[in-house]
Amino acid sequence: MKVQECVLAEEVVPADSAEAGLWDAIVVSEGIKARLRNQALLSLLVRPDLPFEVTALHGLCTLYGPPGTGKTTLARGLAAQVAPFVPGRAVRRIEINPHGLMSAEHGQSQQRVSELLGDYVPGLASDGLPTVVILDEVESMAVARSAASLAANPADVHRATDAVLTALDLNAAEHPHLLFVATSNFTTALDEAFLSRSDAAILVPLPEPEALQEILASTLLTLSGKYPALGDLARSSSMGRIAKAANGLDGRRARKVIFEALAQRLDTVLDPGTLTEDDLAAAVHSAAVETSGPEVSRAAH
Ligand SMILES: Nc1ncnc2c1ncn2[C@@H]1O[C@H](COP(=O)(O)OP(=O)(O)OP(=O)(O)O)[C@@H](O)[C@H]1O
Ligand SMILES: [Mg+2]
């Protein structure tokens, strides 16, 4: 696999981009969004003028938490959030998925990681434009060396992680217009030295019932553009109870549960506007049982 193939997207996002919708679609506490945005702005605006020895800032934020909680979407939406505040009012976004980089061939992984992060990515951003580099699912690249003895080729994994750290150190010193945002489903498998280089490690948790209600309602409201009756369902007083029963679902599953509810009956497939509270409650119940087991689900009722 060539390192270029790990770069899924590369684009310049202007301040007035329609991408603001990405960030708005994720329902998390405002504190999480503010922390990510502020840390990113500090990295891009303040850090470049200060010596690295003084700030010890690497220009790396790590978003971690359970699957389906909005980490990748927040990382993608960040460029549009910071663009209004940077000179030129535009931010480049480079999206990297390191899967496939960890070659089985001896010594190849380390070389490719160095090439990608030390060479190719800085080359894409050589015009000096503030750039957000997303390292999605970074655990595949920065594996904890303490756990690497279980891997097929531990020495290679070890060296690849070293290469990530070296590249981060070099970029921090030489390319302070690069801000890395890593996402991960877990932190225990992430290398400690990688986590220590993160200027902020931000937990993106499972949504609370209040957030679940907002996610369910916003999905219904979007559908109500085409099926107006779903607007009434979104605003109905039973949504609070349904959202409580959904406790334990992640944000991705909460959006999908609306479609799972529609799929329960042919009538609602053919005319989604006829979806009832009972349909939705039944689908939420099944999803909660699947996710957390019958005991927890009963307790939520
Ligand atoms: N907190 C949330 N609020 C609203 N929607 C959410 C939330 N979390 C996830 N979603 C929905 O789920 C989809 C997938 O989210 P995303 O890929 O960003 O999650 P993730 O945390 O990166 O998941 P993974 O860890 O599996 O990669 C989003 O497009 C969004 O529709
Ligand atoms: Mg993700």
Description:
Helices cover 50% and strands 12% of the residues. By secondary structure, it is of the alpha/beta class. It has two domains: 3-203, Rossmann fold (3-Layer(aba) Sandwich), CATH 3.40.50; 209-300, no CATH class. The chain has a six-stranded mixed β-sheet, sandwiched between helices. Helix 5 runs parallel beside helix 6 (154-174) and helix 11 packs across helix 13 (277-292). Magnesium ion binds next to helix 4.
Salient structural properties:
6 strands, 6-stranded mixed β-sheet, binds adenosine-5'-triphosphate, Rossmann fold, disordered C terminus, binds magnesium ion, globular, 2 domains, 301 residues, alpha/beta
Produce a short descriptive summary.
50% of the residues lie in helices and 12% in strands. It has 301 residues and is an alpha/beta fold.
